[in-house]
Specification:
Helix content is 69%, strand content 2%. It is built from six helices and two strands, in the order αββααααα. The longest helix is centred in the last third of the chain and has 31 residues, at 105-135. InterPro entries: BioY.
Amino acid sequence: MKTKHLIYAALFAALIAVGAQIRIPIGPVPVTFQVPMVLLAGFLLGPKLGALSTTVYMLVGLVGVPVFAGSGGIGSLMSPSFGFVIGFIPAAFIAGLGAGDGRSLLKTAGFGMIALLVIYVSGLLYFVFIMNQVIGTPVGLAEALMLTVVPFVIKDTIITVLTAMFGKTLYRRGLRPAI
């Protein structure tokens, strides 16, 4: 891996951190701009570097830098919403599979939607686990779904399609890393 690849991964880790700071608290899981940054990392960097950038983001946050939506540090592992951060890694990889000149916008957006589903499933399952096993506040799967996924589906679907369009436009215009 070349130095420039590491720089690109670090740049997107920083963009994800900025996206986390733009947040609207509406419940236990705030609305942030992390998802479009994660998807864009995959769309522009490809699967491996996209996943690396999200891994760097997560590790930087876990060592104590407040890059998550309102926090940082190892204690973030106990946050009910940390499962979404974990889901960013495979999501960026999957979004990266939809990148490149050979993919249509429909395919790129489709990979983005699969990536979004991975984020949701990871976040939902982690939320249920932390609430039930760590915090001790029993919550069922249906209730957790209503708290962590349903309020975001329309917004995230629109953002995923727009991010796919933006990523494809940047890619076609050559505004992508020379990887």
